[in-house]
Amino acid sequence: MEYVALLIDFILHVDVHLEAFVRDHGAWVYALLFVIVFVETGVVVMPFLPGDSLLFVVGALCGLGFMSYWVAVAVLLGAAILGDQCNYHIGRFFGPKVFQWEHSRYFNRKAFLQAHEFYEKYGGITIILARFMPFLRTFAPFVAGVAAMTRIKFTMFNVAGALIWVFGIVTAGYFLGSIPFVQAHLDKIIWALILVPGTLVLAGAWQARRKAAAAVQ
What we know:
Blueprint: H1 2-12, H2 14-25, H3 28-42, H4 52-63, H5 69-98, H6 109-130, H7 136-146, H8 151-176, H9 180-184, H10 186-216
């Protein structure tokens, strides 16, 4: 429980902890950033690690001179791209094993073909938009692998999504993080970066469930 409490405190006060880490360990912060983003995007069981809030705080610290903007962006890009690729290949590995259960209600050949068709048509925009959504950011590349989305197509949109996500949020933090109002309310901004996308995901899932239930009736 102590480790869980520490993790929650890090997520909610990532600005304080990251700044302290830079002061105490210097350039090792880039290794820490790589691990956090790679695990959050590359390990399907770790969707709760900070994503958007972490990138914004990194940008703010770069703007204040604590870190190098270009080194941070390069490290985060590498972690985001490699993380999604790892998650995708985990899905590719488990997909054929899962969908061979012909008598399963959800994991059968028909379900696989439907998922594959969806990702071939809409997988690109799904991968890009999921970058900005907690939980979906972790699960979308895994499901793309399970659905056997074309490797080249996945990689192309993975890179595009990572570029938009990392450059967009880090740059926003870089230019906005030095504004006194933002500094004074950074804790609220972190909460917003966590809660707003999460709420949108839950609302979308609830609406999709209602539509599915209505279709059955």
